[in-house]
């Protein structure tokens, strides 16, 4: 008589709860309680002023769009190559600075005006976007080819290498671009704001645009990974690199392509973020943290996980600033920490993470 | 089998070590006040911070980027509890403030450890980095405790005196704490708990099969790491007389990692060796016309070179050299394995089962 082992995933949720230890059950109950409380609090605040709720909710979703674009590149690189690219935030920041400088040159300066209407033509925005993204992607590729390629499999060493590169980039960026926050002007054909048709609200158009771009990027990546030959190789590579190369596929070429794409997404995010919010010297740390949190929540290498992580982080960020009790709004970063704790308490590998 | 007390190996190990400690003990006589304070004392407390990282990496296999955040928690707690400009208005005795700072940081270490202890490797590194950056933003935002200006003119115990005009006392305190931390970690490595931690480092699933509570062990280890880091935090505040979010930002986090890597991530002595090299370089390059304000670029490039050339850091190079010397002197020595080098040279086989607190 042979006994087939049953994977936890094959069990129903009742049975799965049954095999948990009392401590794990208590943790889950506590997590559920906290989530319930947070939702109730948001609901209570929302019923007080639905207009604020709608605007803050949209802020969260559009932020999530930006976060997703950045983090999808990070998770793509990790999922395939097991490289934690600590310079991802630096690439984001560099793209923002490059695009800003180029736009200044193209438009003869003065395109970006705080609170003013944009005077940048479509080309003044699109050309910097393309050049900065591809330029940063090329830098990422160079970094991978020169420093990371011959260290494959040594994930800690690779992380240390990218950290060293991020220090150099941060210092050089400070030297060349200074420490002043800049804004990239959106194309002047974009309207400043759109009407929402509820409560007579208007909302900045560019933020909606970022959300649409994020959705397009997500669908594009999904289609590429699920429907193309390149994506098929990437998926196979995530599961078993050695087998893929044994089948005669040039895995190094695929790695290079994936690194280029991942870095380009950081660059695209940098230009979008620079237009939507600003370009600043602290962006590297900030967006490295955002990428880390999004993929820790979603699970490394999972695109769907990155989307969920981005939405969770975006919403927590924007609601935290507004819905915390009076006098405590400066504690909002603790909510991000709380989000991380809630996920890790139940899923140490993130929501969709799988053991390496 | 009793091993002879003096082998070439040991002589090569303890000889230079004792010489260094002797030179250091005479530090205030040999060096100028400026050099003593800006290089040696700084190297000692940075070394303690790096030692907490090397303890975790070398003994437990947990490479943490959270050590600077933990020493920051100790420093900020003390800064808020004693008389200071900024932060809370409480004015406790400086010794009590330091003690509570250490305890609070250890508590947070256990808490962070409880959350992160079921994650391994690069994933663990990322989670601790996220903790570090969140701690940085927390102290930046919460003006009741710090804000970006930080806490200044923090009151120190009388014995510490003024670290600029009279640096000898703080130097000796840092030296004694460093020595104590070093000996404590060495001792811990031979206790049942330390052996269990090394077992967790080498094979967590086998340790679990043997009945150990692996997440609990890793959590305890992280708490111990936080305790060590907290000493560095207290000393750094006494040395700086202030602490701000800038003292625990990503660059500082990475400084400690750089120090550990320069020294050798899997060699405890490397913590202070790396810190000394770092402090000397820091002092030297800041004075150079050519480097000027681009100090971080130089440090980043040196870091990159060391990671690329010698994953064992300076201690790895040292081991290779002494290994060659020992071989030529005729004592066979196993080839050096750089990653991970067991920190206790050949842990003595124990007959009793290591007991683990449950």
List keywords for this structure.
heterodimer; A: 356 residues; two-stranded antiparallel sheet; 13 helices; 2% strand; B: 358 residues; mainly alpha; 66% helix; 0% strand; disordered C terminus
Descriptive notes:
The complex is a heterodimer of chains A (356) and B (358). Chain A is an all-alpha fold. Chain A is built from 13 helices and 2 strands. In chain A, α4 (88-107) packs antiparallel against α5, α4 crosses α11 and α8 crosses α10 (251-276). Chain A is globular, with a radius of gyration of 22 Å. Chain B is mainly α and 358 residues long. In chain B, 66% of the residues lie in helices and 0% in strands. The model of chain B is unreliable at 332-358 (pLDDT under 50). The A-B interface holds A 82, 84, 147, 154-157, 159-161, 163-165, 167-168, 170-172, 175, 285, 288-289, 292-293, 295-296, 300, 330-334, 336-337, 340-341, 344-345, 348-349, 356 and B 63, 115-116, 118-119, 121-123, 125-127, 129-131, 133-134, 136-138, 141-143, 249-251, 254, 257-258, 261, 293-297, 299-301, 303-304, 307-308, 311.
